[in-house]
Design a protein that fits this description.
Layout (H helix, E strand, L loop, with lengths): L2 H8 L36 H18 L12 H26 L2 H18 L2 H10 L2 H21 L2 H12 L4 H15 L6 H16 L8 H24 L2 H17 L1 H16 L4 H12 L11
Helix pairs in contact: 1-4, 2-3, 3-12, 4-9, 4-13, 6-7, 8-9, 10-11, 10-12
Length: 307
């Protein structure tokens, strides 16, 4: 089975609607148009009541058995449990968003295409070496210019500091080299010469983020670990600072520890939320999904051909 056939076979289980409900295909061209209001599923937030019960038990235990050993941090129990609860809420919101996005047939197909490119093409080092050999400096320059044009367009649409933060939030999860390779793979498999580059480039970005992911759950463990290391390293220094009892020493260290702990939440939880949030915001998703079905010879009236 050649590489194109393998990719088509892998994508054959994704289509516009369920074969048991052929009239369920939604007709929408832009995801920004009115969405159905969805109430949170408590199955995605079941840890919150558990955290609350553990906190109450912990507080009552400390009343009867005060701590005698020195503490690792100056943070109080409410702060520590609030940080844990916030992280849990972020994970639950990501679960909610994933269910919403993958419930959309068009977005489901686009996501499945990106993951298939990663597993079938990008992971094959021999194949990617051949791709790189075929790519000239002129090819790189074309995609570099496209990215620069889109960056300028993005700044006009999202000016100021918040716009820069938004760009950073969506693009820190991949390198430029991966972005260029993803753009080349996408254009090679699903060339869209008539499309507006401003509409196509976000698909390159989504693919690049997918290619850089560690696994299908998009849990960037290395980012979370790197964020936790400074906090762990700060513990002995914070203990020493409190031992001096000099406010000018231990107060800044206490503030730094709080900042470091809360800073671990973003890299540990936000990448997965960003992944599905960015996917949900793709423009002309129905047009792109129909284009992919045509390229992959997928029947629009069949949702699941391979189980």
């Amino acid at each position: 089975m050649d590489r194109d056939s393998r990719l088509n076979y892998d994508l054959a289980d994704v289509g516009p609607h369920d074969v048991h409900n052929p009239d369920a295909a939604p007709e929408s061209s832009r995801i920004a148009v009115s969405r159905t209001v969805r109430f949170p599923s408590w199955s995605n937030f079941w840890e919150l009541p558990v955290i609350g019960l553990v906190y109450v038990a912990h507080v009552r235990y400390r009343r009867y058995s005060p701590r005698r050993l020195p503490t690792f941090t100056s943070m109080r129990l409410p702060e520590i449990y609030a940080c844990t609860a916030t992280s849990t809420i972020c994970v639950g919101l990501s679960d909610e968003l994933e269910e919403e996005v993958l419930g959309d047939p068009d977005l489901h197909l686009i996501e499945h295409v990106a993951r298939s490119i990663k597993t079938q093409l990008f992971a094959d080092k021999v194949f990617m070496n051949k791709v790189e050999q075929c790519v000239t400096d002129d090819h790189w320059k074309v995609f570099a210019d496209l990215r620069a044009v889109y960056r300028k367009h993005y700044r006009l649409q999202h000016p100021g500091i918040l716009g820069n933060l938004s760009w950073w939030h969506n693009h820190i999860w991949h390198t430029k080299e991966t972005w260029y390779k993803g753009a080349i793979l996408w254009q090679w498999k699903f060339a869209t010469p008539d499309a507006n580059p401003i509409d196509i480039i976000p698909y390159f970005t989504h693919l690049a983020n997918t290619l850089e992911s560690e696994d299908d759950d998009f849990a960037y463990a290395d980012y979370g670990l790197k964020a936790m290391i400074p906090f762990v390293v700060s513990i002995p220094f914070a203990m020493a600072a409190r031992w001096t009892q000099l406010r000018a020493v231990f107060r800044p260290m206490n503030g730094l520890q709080r900042l470091l702990l809360w800073a671990t939440i973003y890299p540990d939880t936000m990448q997965r939320y960003q992944h599905y949030s960015y996917l949900r915001g793709l423009r002309n998703k129905k047009v792109m999904a129909d284009h992919l079905r045509k390229k992959l010879n997928l029947d629009r009236n069949i949702y699941r051909m391979v189980s």
